[in-house]
Amino acid sequence: MNYRHAYHAGNHADVLKHIVIARVIDHLKQKDKPFRVLDAHSGIGLYGLESVEAEKTFEWREGVGRLFLADGSSIELSSDAEAIIAPWRDAIRSVNNPGRLAFYPGSPEIADWLIRPTDKISLNELHPTDYETLAARYGETGQVRLFKLDATAFLKATLPPIERRGLVLIDPPYELTDEGDRVVRMMTEALKRFATGIYCVWYPVTGDGLDQKLRDAVAGMGLRNVLDVRLDIRAVKKNGGLAGSGMMIINPPWHLAEELRVILPELTERLSQGEGTFKLDHQNDE
Ligand SMILES: C[S@@+](CC[C@H](N)C(=O)[O-])C[C@H]1O[C@@H](n2cnc3c(N)ncnc32)[C@H](O)[C@@H]1O
């Protein structure tokens, strides 16, 4: 396991992913019934934008750095788009002192910030050092459960959640050549246990065909309601690199597709590094 998210936190892919999960959590909060966020690949939760790792790549400057100034103030989108990304912005403000953008919240931090006292989170991270960092920040509490398992084993152990409502985030580093197949198997198993969950499955766009393979596999699962959102910041290059990213959202909340339709043109323009494009595809037979 070589991948460390600290080098990439706050980049364009994180921006899209985290805006989407913040929206999903916001929708889950619209009903009183408690829910659980299950994060199968948690990372460490909070990232320093002035850390050695962040300063090796400065990826965040072309991500969150296009939506916030160094003094922590917002570089605003339209008021309609701002209303939609507000939970994500709030999560970022919650980890920064006024006057300076120095930290970026990962998926556990965003969930921890946005959930209500009655909601719960289950965090899983396999990397031993990253697990320690994650565990030190969140600890086992009445609200947070921690796991250090392979993501497939984590989902087997925790699904369905007792709340029977919730978000499952599948966000692997795709560093193994068979990671796409693993994700498909993981989703198939997880859906057998918790068919009504909202699943957010992240994927990279590098030109290696993985995104299409995942899309085809999900299309073959016979699911009734799948939203696929993708934002490319540039054309793919021969030698790879992250040209874009996407999320497949299974059982998306009502109105999420509409909301993404509002923000995607603006977000794409803001994050573009030359040839930004987006796609939104909603297969809904419900
Ligand atoms: C892209 S990062 C997660 C970022 C995080 N979800 C966020 O949005 O802030 C992927 C994480 O998965 C972890 N990981 C890699 N293989 C894993 C596995 N088989 N099971 C669980 N976690 C794994 C990595 O150590 C890494 O921290």
UniProtKB/TrEMBL annotation:
<keyword id="KW-0694">RNA-binding</keyword>
<feature type="binding site">
    <location>
        <position position="18"/>
    </location>
    <ligand>
        <name>S-adenosyl-L-methionine</name>
    </ligand>
</feature>
<comment type="similarity">
    <text>Belongs to the RlmJ family.</text>
</comment>
<feature type="binding site">
    <location>
        <position position="171"/>
    </location>
    <ligand>
        <name>S-adenosyl-L-methionine</name>
    </ligand>
</feature>
<dbReference type="InterPro" id="IPR029063">
    <property type="entry name" value="SAM-dependent_MTases_sf"/>
</dbReference>
<feature type="site" description="Interaction with substrate rRNA">
    <location>
        <position position="3"/>
    </location>
</feature>
<feature type="binding site">
    <location>
        <position position="41"/>
    </location>
    <ligand>
        <name>S-adenosyl-L-methionine</name>
    </ligand>
</feature>
<dbReference type="InterPro" id="IPR007473">
    <property type="entry name" value="RlmJ"/>
</dbReference>
<dbReference type="Pfam" id="PF04378">
    <property type="entry name" value="RsmJ"/>
</dbReference>
<protein>
    <recommendedName>
        <fullName>Ribosomal RNA large subunit methyltransferase J</fullName>
        <ecNumber>2.1.1.266</ecNumber>
    </recommendedName>
</protein>
<comment type="function">
    <text>Specifically methylates the adenine in position 2030 of 23S rRNA.</text>
</comment>
<comment type="subunit">
    <text>Monomer.</text>
</comment>
<feature type="binding site">
    <location>
        <position position="107"/>
    </location>
    <ligand>
        <name>S-adenosyl-L-methionine</name>
    </ligand>
</feature>
<feature type="binding site">
    <location>
        <position position="125"/>
    </location>
    <ligand>
        <name>S-adenosyl-L-methionine</name>
    </ligand>
</feature>
<feature type="binding site">
    <location>
        <begin position="150"/>
        <end position="151"/>
    </location>
    <ligand>
        <name>S-adenosyl-L-methionine</name>
    </ligand>
</feature>
<keyword id="KW-0698">rRNA processing</keyword>
<keyword id="KW-0489">Methyltransferase</keyword>
<feature type="active site" description="Proton acceptor">
    <location>
        <position position="171"/>
    </location>
</feature>
<keyword id="KW-0949">S-adenosyl-L-methionine</keyword>
<keyword id="KW-0808">Transferase</keyword>
